[in-house]
Amino acid sequence: MRRPARAGVIAAATLALTACGVVPQLPGELPTDYVPEVPAPSVSDPGALSADGVDAAERMAVRIRNVGCGELSTGSGFALDERTVITNRHVVADADRIQISTYDGREIDAVSASVADVADLALLRTAEPLATVPGLAEVDAEVGEPVTVVGYPRGGQLSTAQGSVLGYELDTLGSDLGMVGRTNAQVDHGSSGSAVLGSEGQVVGVVYAMDVWSNSYMVPVSTLHDLLAEDAFEPLTSCRETGG
User: Fold this and answer.
1) Distance CA 195, CA 120 (A)
2) For domain 1-21+41-244, which architecture applies?
3) 115 - beta bridge partners?
């Protein structure tokens, strides 16, 4: 089996490798007051989601921009509660400023960010409230269960991808994740941090990688539950502190 690749979009190295750009390279020194100009999100393809499901997807999904020291990257995330966003650790790595775009067109700065050492997950706190969300499933999705990935592939429009859980296997990226889920819901760069919704509409996983066929790999919701219960998130180190 080919090793899965991170599903984030990085405006320097990654875009050069993929030969297709979504986020333009920033000219000169990065401005300190940068605010991205993006349209208000809307679901481009509701797929199997009901009207209520589309509404919930719009409300919970967020677009994340990592403004680093000379770099800009994008990813996805979702609201855990009205002031907390879940995404991937690699989406916010080496950030100087993290900006969150909501379904109703608001641009919100994260006031704090923390990451888990034993999984590719990050937790962001916001000063402004987020919309109510469906919440986390109590247990992992079963093999064969239908799933829907909700996120912002390539930093563009909010979209969904349908598939099913193909199975669970040991993480091949060396992220100390243990068992991870694999689905045939196709994702793209920028989908990292997307919520994976189960058949009941609750979050059953967090996308963190994809394979060469664009199938998605997810951190199971059981791992997220464990890390939240253990308070296993440590403050993120800014790129300015590391000299990045």
Assistant:
1) 14
2) Beta Barrel (2.40)
3) 122, 234
Asked if residues 133 and 56 have their Cβ atoms less than 8 Å apart, the reply is yes
Cα–Cα distances in angstroms (integers) from residue 134 to residues 56, 58, 238, in the given order: 7, 11, 31
Domain residue ranges in the chain: 1-21+41-244
- Give residue-wise pLDDT tens across range 88-120: 999 999 999 999 999 888 999 999 999 998 889
- 196 exposed, middle or buried (CB, 10 Å; 0-12, 13-18, 19+)? buried
Is residue 82 pLDDT above 70, yes or no? yes
DSSP classification of residue 237:
P
- Please tell me the number of Cα atoms within 13 Å of 149 on its side-chain side: 34
What are the backbone dihedrals phi and psi of residue 168, each rounded to the nearest 5 degrees, phi first?
A: -125, 140
pTM, whole model, 2 decimals?
0.80
Return the number of other C-beta atoms located less than 10 Å from residue 219's C-beta: 28
Lowest mean pLDDT, pick from 29-43, 105-119, 142-156, 162-176: 29-43
By the 8 A CB rule, do 206 and 86 touch? yes
What is the DSSP pairing of strand 179-186 with strand 215-220? antiparallel
